Amino acid sequence: GILDCNRGRSAYIHEITQLWGLRGQRMVQPGEIATLDPRDVPVLVCGASDTAEAAGRDLAEYSKRGGAVVACLPSNDLLQAVGIKRVDTLNMPLRLRLSCLNAAGVGGDLLPIVGEAIAYEAVQADDVLAHLSHPGNDLRETPGIIDVKLGEGRLIAIAFDLAQSVHLCRQGDPSKAEV
What we know:
11 strands, alpha/beta, 179 residues, 5 helices, 7-stranded mixed sheet, two-stranded parallel sheet
């Protein structure tokens, strides 16, 4: 499922996940999260938004019930549920280095990240799937994508606004380039 929120560019998240081969998502309204059954909606993607920020506690409870939450710029409530806090806003541009993910077509490349990004504190090294760094300064990396167990589920926290970054890098369906 995809959390339906305006600033989070829910429709754009739906579009790019479709292009990336992920099918079968449905829009989930914020009021549904408290009773959402992870067996029916095993994964809930949340774009960076005030809606996702306000739903942080409900998202944490959904994860504890067995759901996987994929959150861009996750709320403080959601991060606190796994013992992590935001410590800073990162200056742009950034590069993303995948450290534990094998992604087709990436092959060790540093992916450009633009838009908004944050730094985390209290992240276990085993939880980091990708790191953010400034171009030319790979020695000062910060977690970019983390994967943490939360109750019976998981939180995958993305330290940047994925939809905004993809949009600003002009990726997606070329027929919608002017949208």
